[in-house]
Amino acid sequence: MVEKSEVAVAECQYYSLNGVQSAVKTCMDAIGGFQSYINPGDTVLLKPNLLQAKPPEEYITTHPVLVEAVINLVRDAGGIPQVGDSPGAFDRGLEKYWNITGLTEVCGRLDVELVNFETAGSYLKSRNGRDYHIAKPVLDADLVINLPKIKTHSLTTFTCAIKNLYGTVPGFTKVEYHKQAPQPSEFAERVVDIFAVNQPCLHIVDGVVGMEGSGPSSGDPRKLGMILAGEDGVALDSFITHTLGRNPLEVPTNRIAYEQGLGEVDIDKINIIGLAPVIDNFKWPPKLSSTLEMIPGPLARGLMKFWWIRPAIDSEKCNQCLKCQESCPTHALKKPGTLTKDQQAYIPEFDYEKCINCLCCMEMCPQKAIYHDQSLIYRLISKFSDS
Q1: What pTM was computed for the model?
Q2: Domains delineated in the chain
Q3: pLDDT tens sequence across 348-378
Q4: What residues contact 235, with CB distance under 8 A and at least 6 apart?
């Protein structure tokens, strides 16, 4: 890591190609330009966030205009761009994701290869005594440009540069890693491991419109008006977290990555180039970690069976697509469940004895039909805590 990490930020209020490309160029020029990272003929893999097969106007995925802008600038620097990702759970082929998110049109028009991580094979990488499968195109590329979107995350609090590289793990292997690390802190360690084995890379952040509330897919769009870039993904995530009104160390992926020497979290030790917008009253997700830590141990243990926050299904929104069942690593959603009003289909039903609160179901639900259900004890405690 450089002695003082650099984060470049530029204002960008709308998803116009000229505006986004100008903002990206401004950021990159501030940290040395694309020519500092790309040699002529280099293969450059662009890794957007394609969490769900949703159109750009729902602001769940990296906007295709940012992808197009970076493609243009990579080519100007002599690089050969590719675009690839592995969504959390996919059905009917990855092509559906490319099509709906707008990347088929962009990459087809610009003659850029779309790389399928699911069929390309993987390399086994080890870190902290744990093994991880990483898609071959990621590690074979001369440079990876990570293109995350600023969003809240109901399990890890926040998702951006660090968390987006979790998508370099192909297919449903990601679900297995969730199963192996059911607690938020354990999962954050896995996310940081995967971030680490993908270094070094360059990060260019879609912060024009982000997501607040119950992200990364069930939250609300929030205009932020910025593009950011940097080589230190930890510094980027920490600066953005700070800008959104949160202590960077409250985000477990930031804290763990910093403790492992992967980047900087201290805002005073980050060289900020450019002016970030003022973001007021940004909405963070409910805390899933221990609000009970403020209660004495014996009393906390007695209250535990009455204290919970867990996923539940809104039957009015559920369309019985069963993506929640497909994405659940512990098979905690069972069928049959509740018969719907038209008596035609069944709502899946949670087996909370199996549920590990990983929220894969919420993350992958295309209808935003899964919400946080909270017990009365949880609501009362949270009211008087700092959550």
Answers
A1: 0.82
A2: 5-273 (3.40.50.11440), 291-383 (3.30.70.20)
A3: 888 888 887 777 788 788 888 988 787 776 6
A4: 5, 6, 7, 263, 264, 265, 270
